[in-house]
Write a structure and sequence with these properties.
Number of strands: 3
Largest sheet: 3 strands, antiparallel
Radius of gyration: 12 Å
Number of domains: 1
């Protein structure tokens, strides 16, 4: 596994956020748009249970690098 390109998933049960470290350009858009979910100084740094699915999707769509993506979980 490449330590410079880690892929992790974080879910609130309804939506899953996918983060790919190798694509991240550290624009900070995620933190600015949803600071309750994206906390770079904490582990885990993404806590999707702190926002609604709609808020998460809106914030992830603002990621300019594509490091953040999402998919809906099956019900």
């Amino acid at each position: 596994m490449d330590p410079d390109n880690v892929k992790k998933e974080y879910s609130n049960g309804e939506v899953t956020i996918v983060w790919q470290s190798g694509l991240c350009i550290h624009s900070g858009n995620c933190v600015k748009n949803l600071p309750g979910v994206f906390k770079p100084k904490e582990k885990p740094w993404i806590t999707p249970e702190n926002a609604s699915t709609e808020e998460i999707i809106a914030a992830v769509k603002k990621c300019p690098s594509g490091a953040l993506s999402f998919y809906m979980n099956k019900k």
